[in-house]
Amino acid sequence: MTEQTWIPEDVDAERPSIARIYDFYLGGNHNLPVDREAARQVVEMAPDLPEIMRVNRAFLRRAVRHVVEAGISNFLDLGSGIPTVGNVHEIAQAYEPTARVVYVDNDQVAVAHSREILSGNDRAMAVLADLRDTASVLNDPEVNRLLLLGLGEPLAVLMSAVLHFVPDDDEAAALVATYRDAMPSGSYLVVSHASERVTTAKRVGQAADQYSRTIAPMKLRSLEEVTGLLEGFEILAPGVVHCSQWRPDPADGPVPADPLPTVCALARKP
Amino acid sequence: MLELFPQTDPDGQPRGRTAAGFTADPPAHHARPDELGDAPHAESVLELAAALQRSLLPQLPSTLPGVEIAYRYLPSNDVIQVGGDWFDAIVLPGKRIGLVVGDVMGHGVASATMMGQLRTAVQTLAVLGLPPQELLRHLDDTARRLSDTHLATCLYAVYDPVTRRCTLANAGHLPPVLARPGEPARLLDIPTGVPIGVGGHAFDAVEFDIEDGDTLVLFTDGLVETSKRDFSDGLEILRSALPGARVPLEEACGNVLDALDTAPRGDDAALLMARFDGIPTGNVAHWSLEPATRAPWQARRLVRGMLERWELGHLAPMAELLVSELIGNSIRFASRPIGLRLLYTDTLTCEVHDDCHTLPVPRTTQELSEKGRGLSIISALSHRWGTNRTDTGKIVWFELEPGGGTAAESTPVRSAPVRRAPGRTP
Fold first, then answer.
1. Do A98 and B302 touch (CB under 8 A)?
2. Which residues of A touch B353 (CB under 8 A)?
3. pLDDT tens per residue, range A17-52
4. What is the DSSP string of A126-186?
5. What is the pLDDT of residues B142-154, one digit of tens each?
6. Which of A100, A141, A150 is the closest to B305 by Cβ?
7. Within a 13 Å sphere around the CA of A232, how many CA atoms are in the beta-carbon half?
8. Cβ contact (<8 Å) for A144 and B286?
């Protein structure tokens, strides 16, 4: 099968991967039958999911643009998946050509393919690491090579649609706090998180169950719960809101009255 | 083993590695004019060839950054068969290690001389940082200019102790054996290539990962092939003689020779073993800087921070000064990000990589000129420095001694690529 030539040898093609499922939802072509099947099952439970992903990406674009305009040019994207569609380096480098982005993922396929996409880009790269292993991320030679952490200058850390894969609230809060403590003053944190919507709570909950069962344990969090993860940060206006409501841009379409269950925030370390 | 070289000559004197090698021979071998009959003349020529060959072979240090070396050279028992085997281990820019083994076909003074010339050519080409396949191509060109009668086989491998990759190209030589602890030693499957001196054929390079503790074994046919056994039997003995676990490399080298029992040898034999341990990742720092006016400032801060972590704070003022000189030069011409790399091994190596292909040259500056002094400063204040071309541009590098000395202060002076101006040492 020609489509599998990009798969590293030691990847288990029988197990679905979050990164490849995201890639499927976003219209990428770096996913396997097992991923597509898992993705279809989730979509059956939550037909909104592809749209949620799209809304999430649109938020990411607006947030990255804001951060670049605030003078930040170094980005650490944790749990990035495969940077196929609407990726951070394209957004950031469109506004600031010298912006630098390091993608971190623990999925070998995601990293292998990211490296292929990023080859030839001097200012973006992918690193294989688990975002929960903060020390190995922050001490990674390639992270330091590109983001110059040793200079102690502010950077932006992105946790886009990843914290809901850390189901334990205390662990999630501790994880955010560890990065916060390592971030120089004036740094930004971009967060988006799967949430519940009153009208479809049951179905989203079922989808989360499906995710938890087949792919990775998942925890939906409310606006208040996400706010609770951001202790020690100054949450910028409009606060923790649904993604479609965060500084909406007419280019992203009208803001729906009943927003999709994905919430977000842009926070700054004082 | 008494005949092992390089060790000592029969008088117990260390064998010299340069022209001194001639005089290290017993005085009886010097033919006086009144003794020049045919037979003594022939004998003295053979002695001369043997002495010449010994003097052309290197004495290698047993440890290089990230690499341990052990080697043996065994001359032929038949003095008529003085051979053209050679080997080398060369520290390349970026602390990469070039490993060479070669064999000039034929025997006698002419072969030994050719061997010496080829060894010098490999040395010269290697430190330019040429990839193995290009080095062999240039070596082939050189060999054909030097002689149209000599052919040689040559294997050239480059080990990078930072990336832990080995790149290898072959000109008709026997492939090396890779010994990995816990696994049977195996002959590497590499392209054979055509011998040096044939011309007209491209060389291919193969690249593979090295694990810390791996040993690469390079050798010539005289080691495995004797009148008593063929090549494949010899190779089998060599492979099974290599230890499955980590033992001192000198011991492993001796064991291989004992197992192969090459005496009496009709041909000379060379064995070069290199065990790779790499440079610890914590001793390497690498940054990518935008070619902007603040880059020298960034470089100074990053270098200072890292040297303090390495407890080399005493080198920081010097390293910062020289690095910012190099970065300051790069930002004038580079269009893509500038690479800055520090390697902490036996020395502190600082490299600046940029995408400008023009190599800088030290200029004679007007006394009051503010420009054009960068390389003079680096030349005067560093232990060694140099420049190398890369696929994407160039590297300018310098080394500082952790002890703090410059080349002029420490002995012996290592091969500084550029002579320093007298009186410039602080």
1. no
2. none
3. 777 777 787 777 778 888 888 888 877 777 777 788
4. EEE--TT-HHHHHT-HHHHHHH-GGG----EEEEES-GGG---HHHHHHHHHHHHHHSPTT
5. 999 998 888 999 9
6. A150
7. 17
8. yes
